[in-house]
Design goal:
This protein is of the alpha+beta class and 118 residues long. The chain has a domain of 59 residues: Glutaredoxin, CATH 3.40.30.10. Helix content is 32%, strand content 14%. It contains four helices and four strands; from the N terminus they run E-H-E-H-H-H-E-E. It has a four-stranded mixed beta sheet, with helices on both faces. Strand 1, helix 1 and strand 2 form a beta-alpha-beta unit. It is globular and about 45 Å long. 28% of the residues are buried.
């Protein structure tokens, strides 16, 4: 099993909570501060595949960029949504824990524990 990777925003209480839970369980994930080093489209595509969701489900709909970019438009395809997230990483839901071929969004933070028993 590969080492866990946490896509993390230290300003987000849910993200901080997920990291703390992992550390309490003896897990020291590789932390990717995705606002500082945004994932590219290929990485985002791998993330949604590992999460088992559509790109639209990874979007933070409350973000200003979501409205400004018109991302609620149902005619936008997955490529357009992934490109928007790569360009504006604040649109990416957080935190995301990746372990091996699977991933979970840590909302609530306890969800990250689902990948520890595998």
């Amino acid at each position: 099993m590969s080492d866990p990777v946490l896509y993390h925003n230290p300003r987000c209480s849910k993200s901080r909570g997920a990291l703390e839970l992992l550390q309490q369980h003896g897990v020291a994930p590789t932390v990717v501060r995705y606002l500082d080093t945004p994932p590219d489209v290929a990485t985002l595509r791998r993330l949604v595949d590992a999460l088992g969701i559509a790109p639209r489900e990874l979007l933070r709909r409350g973000e200003t960029a979501y409205r400004e970019l018109g991302l609620a438009d149902p005619s936008l395809d997955d490529d357009a949504l992934l490109a928007a997230m790569a360009e504006h990483p604040s649109l990416i839901e957080r935190p995301i824990l990746v372990r091996g071929p699977r991933a979970v969004i840590g909302r609530p933070p306890e969800r990250v524990l689902e990948l520890l028993d595998e």
